[in-house]
Amino acid sequence: MPGQTLAEKVWDAHLVHRAEGEPDILYIDLHLLHEVTSPQAFDGLELRGRKVARPDLTLATEDHNTPTQDIGLPIADPTSRAQVEAIRKNSEKFGVTLYPLGDPGQGIVHVIGPETGLSQPGTTIVCGDSHTSTHGAFGALAFGIGTSEVEHVLATQTLRLRPFRTMAVNLRGTPRPGVTAKDIILAVIGQIGTGGGQGHVIEYRGDVIAGLSMEARMTICNMSIEAGARAGMIAPDDTTFAYLKGRKHAPKGADWDAAVEYWRTLRTDDDAVFDKEVDVDLDALTPYVSWGTNPSQVAPLDSVVPAPESFDDPAQRAACERALAYQGLTPGTPLAGIPVDAVFLGSCTNGRLEDLRAAAEVLRGRRVDPKVRMLVVPGSDRVKAAAEAEGLDKVFRDAGAEWRNAGCSMCMAMNPDFLQPGQRAASTSNRNFEGRQGAGSHTHLVSPAVAAATAVAGALASPESLPAPVFAEV
Amino acid sequence: MEPFVTHTGRMVPLRRSNVDTDQLIPVRFLKRLTRTGYADGLFAVWRTDPEFVLDQPQYEGATVLVAGPEFGTGSSREHAVWALLDHGIRVVLSPRFADIFRGNSLKNGLLTVQLPDDVIDELWRRAEEFPQEPVTVDLAALEVRAGELTVPFELDPYHRMRLMEGLDEIDATLRHADKIRAYEARRPSFKPTVTAA
Ligand code: SF4
Which end of chain B has fewer CB atoms at under 10 Å, N or C? Predict the structure, then answer.
């Protein structure tokens, strides 16, 4: 028998039922819920008198609609409030654990799973949210589902699925200093396109991975969906185990030893064959930024806005033309130097402690350009507390940025944090779709370090391009 | 879910690739708690442009959307499917769909059919030249027919059967409840639960 890939091993370990001519029934270890994609699923259960099969494997949070300031007050927008009230009511009625706004466990659904140790190697994790791929950084098979599937998991703790195809993204070479996980994944999407991973689970491989922190791995896996993939995965290693050890829901005692022994088997066998393989060269990589309105429309920050004619494919050429018209950009304009109105640091892509540290590093001894509004939104309440414990909030405030409470915030602008029509932002989030950060808004996706440098310069900029920081005498 | 066997209707040509779910239904429409009532949200921003194809008089009442590749990328919001259905769209034809969108559509009885780029090009041309010409999407024969054009398509037999019968998938899965319980009995003790600290 030929060897198996990591994704195939995890799939097989969750197989409940397989029969000719129908999709497999796959067991789900962890089902995460948030307020936007769950109300109709709970309604469906109620309508048919069904229960939640495994409340103990189900966790709900409030993140998309929640305000990031004045969180003690009732939510002002009545429709947002209704959605948050619905998840509270449904969680209570169906016995599901909920981390509500204001609870120290609250945060973006893809930040709280890992930080509590629930996202573990070899588990299956689903959520009615496409960025569930984030949890694949732990060697979990984690993917987003629609509301009908949310209902199916609630009722049965399983899903009906055909096995995903497998794809290796081989990260070759060594990134230079200053190149981050965000730059790596933007370059990958730029190379393979928004449909490049369609139907596949991407496993990120290569020597570079051993040196990446769990936060960096999560950033990479998070954006797998932007390449069209069902999921992204990274084989667990000692970095993974060290991250998990001692966390709230990590195995303890003898269970820990048994778990680690199993987790060590979770790697692609040497003789396994992927359905698809691509190599991505990191040696020449420099910080990346998006110029268009889909996440494959990216380029090195030190290059220029491309011309539609530079694309051979007619669909890509047309997409470039449309994107430039929407973004208000002219081919040949240097990307560095495009002025911005706002900078958003946060989201499930780059809202973790390491991301805040990287941005604070750039902001120390510098000021945010007075024309720029910079919003810093920690990914979870725990991230917020940890950042405050090391004084990062002070760095952001001193620089002139706004320090907020946890949530999705300006990543999708469902709460009061959004851009005005025509405003341009550098954002550490994951999607640069038309209107994503507010109707008529323009988004440039960047890493936390580039976001901070851009806030200081008032225009897209790399940290290296900034004048030296000035520290007050002490 | 309504069974789907065959559908005949007029086409609306949407000459765009990467039609993402934020365009299909902008975020402000996601705050509702129901599965219906999303017609006003469909392409809400693009429709503020009076030139946008969906609202041109010749395409009024069209039920088959013909779009470019990477249709439905982005978020998992099933609202995108509900909005298309509420507007009256029953079939979307595209060279490639995003996986989650495709799964959502098939679960709601919105048929998504993948066709080669050149066929989509031809359908765009026809829809623009003969907007009144009907197209038939036949799930029993696995064929798309428009005028003298007949193109086969593929669909996973299970999804096809589910669509044609309008089957409730949860019921179908619960028939295997004993196997689910057996699986649970052999899950390792180190697997996490939300309730144990
Ligand atoms: S931070 Fe953005 S991408 Fe992540 S879950 Fe929230 S809205 Fe979705």
Answer: C
What kind and span of H or E run contains A126? strand A124-127
Q: Per residue of chain A (474 residues), give pLDDT as tens.
A: 789 999 999 999 999 999 998 999 999 999 999 999 999 999 999 999 999 999 999 999 999 989 999 888 888 888 899 999 999 999 999 999 999 999 999 999 999 999 999 999 999 999 999 999 999 999 999 999 999 999 999 999 999 999 999 999 999 999 999 999 999 999 999 999 999 999 999 999 999 999 999 999 999 999 999 999 999 999 999 999 999 999 999 999 999 999 999 999 999 999 999 999 999 999 999 999 999 999 999 999 999 999 999 999 998 999 999 999 999 999 999 999 999 999 999 999 999 999 999 999 999 999 999 999 999 999 999 999 999 999 999 999 999 999 999 999 999 988 899 999 999 999 999 999 999 999 999 999 999 999 999 999 999 999 999 999 998 765
Kindly report the three-state secondary structure assignment for every residue of B70-93: CECECCCCCHHHHHHHHHCCCEEE
| A408 marked as part of a ligand binding site | yes
CA B33 to chain centre: 20
- Which residues lie below 8 Å from residue B126, measured CB to CB, with a gap of 6+? B11, B133, B146, B147, B149
- Distance (Å, rounded) from C-alpha A170 to C-alpha A298? 20
DSSP for A402-429? EE--SS-GGGTT-SS--PPTT-EEEESS
Q: Is B10:B58 a contact under the CB 8 Å cutoff?
A: no
* B196–A118 CB contact, under 8 Å: no
> CB distance B176–A198 less than 8 Å?
no
Tell me the best of A429, A432, A443 to mutate to test the pocket of ligand 1, counting ligand atoms within 8 Å of each CB and taking the most.
A429
Predicted model pTM: 0.95
Q: What is the ipTM of this complex?
A: 0.93
Residues A114, A76 contacting (CB under 8 angstroms): no
Residue A141 to residue B81: CA distance in whole angstroms: 25
Distance of CA A354 to the CA centre of its chain: 14
Q: Which two tokens stand for residue B26?
A: 């902008």
Q: How far is CA A45 from the centre of its chain?
A: 29
Query: What are the chain B neighbours of A433 within 8 Å (beta carbons)?
Result: 20, 22-23, 74
φ and ψ of A142, to 5 deg = -130, 130
Percent of chain A as helix, strand, coil, to the nearest 5: 35, 20, 45
